[in-house]
Design brief:
The protein contains 13 helices and 13 strands. By secondary structure, the protein is of the alpha/beta class. The protein has a domain of about 250 residues: NAD(P)-binding Rossmann-like Domain (Rossmann fold, 3-Layer(aba) Sandwich), CATH 3.40.50. Strand 1, helix 3 and strand 2 form a beta-alpha-beta unit. It is globular, with a radius of gyration of 21 Å. It starts with a helix and ends in a 22-residue tail after the last helix. About 45% of the residues are buried. The structure holds nicotinamide-adenine-dinucleotide and uridine-diphosphate-N-acetylglucosamine.
């Protein structure tokens, strides 16, 4: 649909302008490579990039991503199934690309505590592989899904980018080391990179059914199903929960901001408000109409106690301001989970599209 619109514009111009016909995509559309497109944030980015009239190429190995997250856009994207690391796909995927939005990762703190080597490979080795391919392909800019977990348990709140990082979990170490690689590729090779330190992103399509799922996706679906959620610890830990549209906005701004403002730099992306888990549970009780109680279990290893973003740098240099705040985001997310049948046995059944056309064609 989007491509048809651009095709017709290109046709009219060549008819009446008398110019040599130019391929519509080369003149009018930017090409984005989105890694981890079948994931929660990657699929939201893909929908928005398509909506702004640009092209999406993408890579995913479905390790945590889901086919149904991209089923409705599958025919509009150049999707390549495979691992970023060691599959040989990544160099070809970077060819002709303007911007890379690097989302692919094993995005779980407890999973990294359980299997640090898998976390290291997916979250760090794969990033270095991608950076080499991006450098060789002369990609304009790489925007990286960094993590606020890099701050660890530093007592200062809010967290600002000039603070010394203090990662606790293997996941946080790999995400922070990936940031350093991003910056070093800018300094050593001139590849423009921008790191966005996301603060607990939530919203539609976040996987609720893995033991490693984000707390809000889990709580909402459990409470909608009438099941009892569990708080690890005493529930006083707090997060700057950030609705996914804000992260999408930040990525698009990061691609377009002047290099002098953003290249080689790190930016917090959050909302600038924090809420603890006990309060979050009570709010969800109200929104969902859940009458049950929460149960408590021991605190998780590697868990950060409090998290809150200082946003001055992102506001000044990216032009970022959060558009959707916590409670509104929570309501939208509850509505979304309500509107789909979120039982695990029904997930994945919508996906039937065989293979999307290659955008190079
Ligand atoms: P997600 O698990 O929904 O998405 C990750 C995607 O990457 C999945 O589709 C998975 O299949 C794919 N993937 C993983 N390893 C891969 C590999 N080696 N090759 C190809 N594909 C691979 O996670 P998400 O919540 O959408 O997170 C996206 C990114 O944002 C991650 O880099 C994560 O570390 C970062 N991040 C997320 C949050 C959050 O709160 N969700 C906060 C900070 C940073
Ligand atoms: C999350 C992201 C991570 C990101 C980081 C920083 C996920 C799965 N993790 O980690 O990718 O880099 O934010 O932005 O998206 N909890 C419960 N009960 C549950 C599940 C969790 O009490 O059933 C607690 C946890 O112990 C933790 C808090 O909720 O204190 C948040 O946990 P979680 O959603 O897994 O996110 P983070 O570990 O903060």
């Amino acid at each position: 649909m989007v491509q048809e619109v651009f095709l017709s514009i290109a046709y009219e111009r060549s008819m009446f302008g008398g110019a040599v016909p130019v391929r519509y995509d080369e003149r009018l559309m930017a090409r984005y490579l989105i890694t981890g497109v079948a994931g929660f944030i990657g699929s939201a980015l893909a929908r928005e990039v398509l909506a702004q009239g640009d092209q999406v190429r993408s890579l995913d190995n479905f390790s945590t991503g889901k086919r149904e997250n991209i089923s409705e856009i599958f025919s509009q994207i150049d999707f390549r199934e495979g691992d970023l690391l060691g599959s040989g796909l990544v160099h070809d995927a970077c060819r002709g690309v303007d911007y890379i939005l690097h989302e692919a990762a094993i995005a779980s703190v407890p999973r990294s505590v359980k299997d640090p080597l898998a976390s290291h490979r997916a979250n760090l080795d794969a990033t270095v592989d991608l950076l080499i391919a991006a450098r060789d392909a002369k990609v304009k800019r790489v925007v990286y899904a960094a993590s606020s977990s890099a701050y660890g348990d530093t007592p200062t709140l809010p967290k600002h980018e000039d603070m010394t990082p203090n990662p606790i979990s293997p996941y946080a170490v790999a995400k922070l080391a990936s940031e350093y690689y991003m910056t070093s590729f800018y300094r050593c090779y001139g590849l423009e990179t921008v790191c966005l330190r996301y603060f607990n992103i939530f919203g539609p399509r976040q996987d609720p059914d893995s033991p490693y799922s984000g707390v809000l996706a889990k709580f909402i679906t459990q409470m909608l199903r009438g099941e009892q959620p569990t708080i690890f610890g005493d529930g006083t830990q707090s997060r700057d929960f950030t609705y996914v549209d804000n992260a999408v906005q930040a990525n698009l701004l990061a691609c377009k901001a002047p290099a002098s403002e953003v290249a080689g730099r790190v930016f917090n992306i959050g909302v600038g408000q924090r809420v603890d888990l006990n309060e979050t549970f009570r709010l969800l009780q109200k929104i969902i109409g859940y009458n049950g109680e929460v149960k408590y279990a021991p605190e998780r290893a590697g868990d950060v106690k409090h998290s809150l973003a200082e946003l001055t740098r992102a506001k000044r240099h990216l032009g970022y301001t959060p558009k959707i705040y916590f409670e509104e985001g929570l309501r939208r997310t509850v509505e979304w989970y309500r509107s789909v049948d979120s039982r695990p046995d029904n997930l994945g059944t919508q996906f039937s599209n065989p293979r999307a056309p290659n955008v190079d064609a």
